[in-house]
From TrEMBL:
It comes from the Eukaryota. InterPro entries: PMP-22/EMP/MP20-like, PMP22/EMP/MP20/Claudin, PMP22_EMP_MP20. It is a multi-pass membrane protein. This is Epithelial membrane protein 1.
Amino acid sequence: MRQRDVWVYLGGEEREETLRLRGGGADVCPCRLPWLGGSSPRMSFQNLERQYLKGYDWSIFHYLTVTMLVLLGGIFLLHITAIILLLIATIDNAWWFTDTTSTDIWARWVKMNGVWNYTELPEYYQQHHEYLQAVQATSVLACIFAILGLFVFVGQLFTLAKGQRFTFSGIFQLIACLCIMIAASIYTDIFHKDEKNGWYGHSFILAWISFVLTFISSIIYFVLRKKTA
């Protein structure tokens, strides 16, 4: 139950009273309202409350509500998109291409007689085994933190008070952003940098795109946290 100060006329005398507004979270400015009559101030203020709520313009409240819902829906879609791109980048075998090979961070496929055959990663990768494990681990962690951030985002809408929402989602997204950035940076700096007969595949590109999306979503979460504080 919220309280707002209003001015009313009681028998020609101006007095400051308190009007209890039930429901509605919009701020109401102090205003001058006519005396509505009644046998007692208690009954009069009940009438005043009904008249005030009846005449209040709720269009602004509805506009803000719809705007917030659209914003939350957009953030949700952005988060889902980032998760999908992270999963594709981590799972799909398209980090490095040549005319006859397709390589990801887990294995290599070789094209023989028009058929792609699964093979182990070449010795070149085994020479940089620690870097390869770092790429694999950070890619998986990026997916995990992004998915956890989505569940936290949905859960905190119904459990946390204003000013505390979106903080944990922003932290999870920022960690996912750092993880996929580390994975893509190591892969760029260590693997295939001297090879001229191949090109980076769509999984590598999607890894960098997901880095941008997770970074943007983490910033949005932190900004929303300040807006709702």
